[in-house]
Amino acid sequence: MALYDNKYWLLSHIRNSFISTDDTVMVGEDLPKKLLESRGYTDPDNSSDEDDEVEHESYDLQFDTQFSRLRSDVTVRMEKMALAKKRAAKIKQVKWDSNPPELDNTDVIDLFSKKEIKNVSPQKSLLTIQVLNSSNLPRNPFTEYAKFDGSAQIGIPTRRFKIFLTMLPEEQRNYPMVVCCIAAAKISEFIGLILLKCSTIHGHIQLKSPSHYGLYLTEEDGEIEAFPCLDAKESVAKYSFTHLSLVKKAKEERNEDEESVQAEDLPVIEVRDSPLQESVGMKLMEVHDTAMESQLYKSFQVYILSKVRPKVEIHLGISGEKIEIDPVQQKNSKFPFVRQKAVSYHMDSIACCDIVDAKSNRAVFRIVYSAIDPANSGSFGQTMNFKHYDFESDLNTAKAIAQKINQILEIRSSVSRKEYNELRERKLKIKRFSLNK
Q1: Contact indicator for 257, 232 with CB cutoff of 8 Å
Q2: Mean pLDDT for the stretch of residues 233-245
Q3: Model-level pTM?
Q4: Bridge partners (DSSP) listed for residue 326
Q5: CB-CB contact of 181 with 227 (8 Å)
Q6: Coil, strand or helix: which one is 264?
Q7: CA distances from 155 to 158, 226, 261 (A)
Q8: Is the pLDDT of residue 14 over 80?
Q9: Residue 230 DSSP class
Q10: Which DSSP category does 29 fall into?
């Protein structure tokens, strides 16, 4: 027991002496153990397991886990030199001699020996064989119209149409062919481009010259409208229709076209018809011209009316595809907080346009539209919610706008217009029934 007491006393004395001094104690060194071994003291209970235990450390020193010693410049340079030596070991330097020694014939033969090359017949690729076999094929007569194709044009205005080909079999007629044409081409040149595309896709169909065919206005389901074919001399940019049908002309129509072409070179002879025939012809021409012009874009300056705010001046843009409402920017407005948003509606969502109130100078017209777009709706069976805009303008402008929109709607015959007309008829029947009671 005395030995153990002396041991613990000595350990505490040594530790206190080290703590009181200003000497630096290295972390991880068990100094009391070393002093005891140097004085000859041994611990009988000491075993080899103590080496695995945590070594005694100074309580005044705390190890920081985030501390890392920076590498010196000498170490970095030594590592770079060692890496350079490894790279240099892989490089072999060859000295170039401008005057090499002369070689004997035997050495030349050994170094540059001739090799026997077998005569291998050149093999033709499958593409070369196909081109050689197709050299005698007849030339496509519609190749000259390829320059009017607008699918690969950049920076040139183009028009895209869906063409129904009536010369195809019945099971293929309901699927239109998309054709892109430059806007500067004529209708006759556009027909030639359509025939070129048709001959490429449907090569088994026999086609004739473009003068034997005509383009007719068509609905989206392929039904041809009761209008004459498009004028072959007109430009494609004049028309904004998206669906057309290519129909073979009758003999009478072809003869009339040929006569009209020949008549351009003949002197003009005035032929006077009867007043009745002349008036009927003029009316038909007016109807045809107004139907064609109704598809073109035109802007009108009108006022939009609202119950909760004063009227706002806007630009009403109308085309065969959509209606745009664009407010006019007013700098000196008395109501700066009143703003009309710019909106646009597809023509398929427009139901009708009627003049609601007409006076001597001013008129109010109403545009009814469907809040649900029939093209994007999930099912056509759901009831549509109709809303309207009221506009004010002079009487002539209101009549022109109503006529233009109604002509476009008659040509398109959208689902919104059909449902709105049915709703109108139901309301009229209910009103008549209530009056008859």
Answers
A1: yes
A2: 85
A3: 0.38
A4: 315
A5: no
A6: coil
A7: 9, 36, 33
A8: no
A9: P
A10: -
**DSSP category for residue 310:** -
H or E stretch covering 163: strand 158-165
Encoded tokens for 365: 């017209």
DSSP 76-137: HHHHHHHHHHHHHHT-------SSPPPPPHHHHHHHS--------PPPPPHHHHHHHHTTTS
**Predicted confidence band at 63 (pLDDT cuts at 50, 70, 90)?**
low
Is the predicted pLDDT of residue 41 greater than 70, yes or no? no
- Which is more confidently placed, 407 or 152? 407
Q: What distances in angstroms separate CA 325 from CA 298, 408, 413, one per listed residue? A: 12, 17, 22
Angle, to 10 degrees, between the axis of helix 275-293 and the axis of helix 395-412?
Answer: 80
Q: Of 12-16, 106-110, 291-295, where does mean pLDDT reach its minimum?
A: 12-16
Q: Any idea which of 31-40, 297-306, 355-364 has the lowest mean pLDDT? A: 31-40
DSSP code of residue 71: P
Tell me the helices (H) and strands (E) count for the chain, helix number first. 11, 11
Rounded to whole angstroms, the Cα distance separating 314 from 239 reads: 26
H-only helix segments in 307-414? 395-412
Q: Which of 264, 261, 245 is nearest to 253 (CA)?
A: 261
Q: pLDDT category, 264, cuts 50, 70, 90?
A: very low
Structure tokens of 140?
Answer: 């496509």
314 contacts 326 by C-beta, under 8 angstroms = yes
**Token pair of 342, please?**
């710019």
Q: What's the one-letter identity of residue 77?
A: R
Mean pLDDT rounded to a whole number for the chain = 76
DSSP assignment string, 126-156: HHHHHHHHTTTSPPPTTGGGGGGB-TT-SSS
> Terminus-to-terminus CA distance in the chain, angstroms?
129
